[in-house]
Design goal:
Oligomer: single chain
Structural class: mainly beta
CATH class: Mainly Beta
CATH architecture: 7 Propeller
Helix content: under 10%
CATH superfamily: YVTN repeat-like/Quinoprotein amine dehydrogenase
Number of strands: 27
Largest sheet: 5 strands, antiparallel
Mean pLDDT: 91
Strand order of the largest sheet: 1-25-24-23-22
Length: 312
């Protein structure tokens, strides 16, 4: 069932876009790299390669994708219209074509997984993973195996894998689990005990079979193989200046570089996003005048060409 008025939502979008001033944004790259990208967080927008915001959306968000159709799929944060969070799909012009309201504390993920289905995770007394169709009908559901004393710290960016299983990071449990469609745990990895609070926020299964994990308050991003062996690590000690400040979102680009957010970069002049090569050279940064960091993102183009692999 659709749970939000499309007409009202579209009117709100038009009003907010007309009233909003694009934030000043600066992309810096000695290598000549320029990206366009979707940013999610307190501000939800598509940023152009010139660093300015091209399209804004009237939601605070946790997660999001630009779909092949050009529509945008968002996991929206708690609000008056979505007291338990939710999922919205809307056009670039702000027309809502689908909306689903959460039933518990938060909705953490939103991923289009094909066949008209959307993967989402819901936090609360009964944390769960669902696939729903565009009519809002639940087509798959299972409980998530994680602590329930702190709903906000149950889970974040969850993804369906090509083989049909689901990769889910559990923050306070400090574990990434791969679940079968029946909800059984097929694989898991415990994040490092040091640095402290290396909570897994984003977990990405790469084409190699390795898993890339952004570890939030640990200011750490790691890549592990299937056996759990660490094969790559990025910490502030690897960088010329400490740019990792609560790294939440991450994306592995087709060229092998990794883009990372610093959600804790709350000052206008701080680096909100950075791109590093496999040998840990910083080749691109993004700053904006927004007084908060970027929660999650999706790189869309690089120097005018579509980014072919959205491993995020």
């Amino acid at each position: 069932m659709r749970t939000m008025s499309v007409v009202v939502a579209a009117m709100v979008m038009i009003t907010l876009i007309a009233a909003a001033e694009p934030p000043a944004g600066v992309q810096t790259s000695d290598a000549g790299i320029a990206h366009s990208f979707l940013v999610c967080g307190a501000t939800t927008a598509i940023v152009g390669e010139d660093g300015r915001r091209g399209v804004a959306f009237p939601y605070g968000t946790r997660d999001g994708y630009v779909l092949p159709s050009g529509n945008v799929l968002l996991a929206v944060s708690k609000s008056k219209d979505f007291p338990g969070g939710g999922v919205v799909e809307l056009t670039r012009e702000g027309k809502v074509v689908f909306a689903w309201k959460g039933t518990q504390a938060e909705v953490s993920s939103a991923q289009d997984v094909g066949d008209g289905h959307i993967l989402l995770t819901e936090a609360g007394p009964k944390p769960r993973l669902l696939e729903i169709d565009r009519a809002g009908k639940t087509v798959l559901e299972f409980p998530l195996r994680c602590q329930t004393t702190d709903a906000h710290m149950e889970t974040r960016m969850s993804r369906k894998l090509p083989g049909g299983s689901y990769l889910v990071p559990h923050l306070l449990d400090k574990v990434v689990r791969e679940y079968t469609p029946a909800g059984a745990v097929a694989w898991e990895f415990k994040t490092p005990s040091e640095p402290a609070e290396s909570w897994p926020f984003t977990a990405i299964r790469l084409a190699s079979g390795n898993t890339l994990i952004a570890c939030t308050h640990g200011n750490l991003v790691i890549e592990i193989d299937r056996a759990g062996k660490e094969v790559w690590r990025l910490a502030n000690s690897d960088l010329p200046t400490p740019l990792l400040k609560d790294p939440c979102g991450a994306q592995r680009l087709a060229n092998g570089n990794t883009v990372i957010t610093s959600y804790g970069a709350s000052k206008a002049d701080e680096v909100k996003m950075l791109e590093v090569t496999p040998d840990k050279r910083v080749v691109w940064t993004y700053r904006s005048n927004l007084p908060h960091g970027v929660h999650e993102f999706q790189i869309l183009t690089t120097n005018g060409k579509a980014e072919p692999a959205a491993l995020k």
